[in-house]
Design a protein that fits this description.
It is a multi-pass membrane protein. With 313 residues, the chain is mainly α. It has helices at 3-7, 17-43, 46-61, 89-105, 107-118, 124-160, 173-190, 193-202, 208-213, 215-229, 235-269; strands spanning 64-66, 69-70, 80-83, 169-172.
């Protein structure tokens, strides 16, 4: 088979199932390879990575300001000693920190591979929505992670201050790293919810009026989610998560209402690109049909025609 025939692809991205599976395997291999390479490089800097992730929390509650650095905490204030539970704890901690950094820092590569696998099968307007989702989704996720990174120390300080006198707090560094990572991911994903509602509205699945009718349930639901997601029982950390999501939800509702109004105006003016015109099936009377001109009449049989045919047969 010629090389050009092997490399030629359908313009709409269609291919046999076997080619889809091979394409998926190649994309996954490239994405996993990028994560492995970045993880190996990050292993040489795992202490700096742990220090960066846990530094704000340790400055707030730890008797050590950062990883391996002694603080000058007052004896009158409560603090927590950071510990590692077992012999394999340091190795597990280094592996976990390196793998987390590998997944995060290699995200441009594996996200591109995912997009390259999905994009050929999308229509033009679907690609436009996907670009918008990525363009707004990444900043929203980073904003949620940034908020969690700064709210968690405040929550931890409130919890540590509840410690009775004469009791010493021992915090496992492994669990502390898990807590910070989980909070960053939860806050980041929570900030994606309004964007998902907007995308559903742009695709015509959900209207802004229906979203507005959900506002009471959404306010209560977001508050309940924030209360469960935040580790502390103080209302400040709960409001720190719930208030931005409330604001983003109402922004999404306002955008959807404006988009619905714009779509209605466009429908009144004429057909959109995705709509088909209605067929006029009203029957017409025979008399209303224009008479056929003499020039367009069928040719009469001539001398070479017998009974209307070209020859006797």
């Amino acid at each position: 088979m010629p090389k050009s025939a092997r490399t030629e692809r359908d313009p709409e991205g269609r291919m046999p199932l076997g080619d889809h599976l091979r394409e998926l395997r190649n994309r996954l291999t490239k994405g996993v390879l990028a994560i492995v390479v970045v993880t190996i490089v990050s292993a040489f800097f795992y202490k700096d990575i742990i220090d960066f992730i846990t530094a704000p929390l340790l400055r707030s509650v730890g008797c050590h300001q950062s990883f391996g650095e002694l603080s000058k905490a007052s004896k009158d204030t409560h603090c927590a000693h950071i510990t590692i539970g077992d012999l394999l704890g340091p190795f597990t901690l280094a592996l976990k920190a390196s793998l987390t950094a590998g997944v995060v820092l290699a995200s441009p590569v594996w996200l591109y591979q995912l997009w390259a696998f999905v994009a050929p099968g999308l229509h033009r307007h679907e690609k436009k929505y996907a670009y918008a989702f990525v363009g707004f989704g990444v900043p929203l996720f980073l904003s949620g992670g940034f908020l969690a990174y700064h709210v968690l120390p405040i929550t931890a300080k409130v919890m540590i201050d509840l410690t009775p006198s004469g009791v010493e707090n021992l915090l496992s560094l492994d669990k502390l790293l898990d807590l910070v990572t989980r909070m960053v991911v939860v806050f980041g994903l929570a900030f994606e919810m309004p964007l998902l509602l907007v995308m559903l509205n742009l695709t015509g699945i959900l209207s802004g009026k229906r979203m507005l009718g959900w506002w009471r349930a959404m306010v209560v639901g977001i508050a309940a989610f924030a209360a469960v997601a935040t580790p502390g029982a103080d209302p400040m950390s709960m409001l720190a998560l719930a208030a931005p999501i409330w604001a983003l939800f109402f922004i999404a509702v306002a955008f959807s209402l404006i988009n619905d109004r714009r779509r209605a105006r466009r429908a009144d003016d004429g057909l959109s690109d995705d709509e088909a015109s209605e067929l006029d099936l009203t029957p017409e009377a025979v008399g209303e049909v224009e008479s056929v001109s003499a020039s367009s009449a069928p040719e009469l049989p001539g001398k070479d025609h017998v009974n209307g045919y070209d020859d006797v047969t």
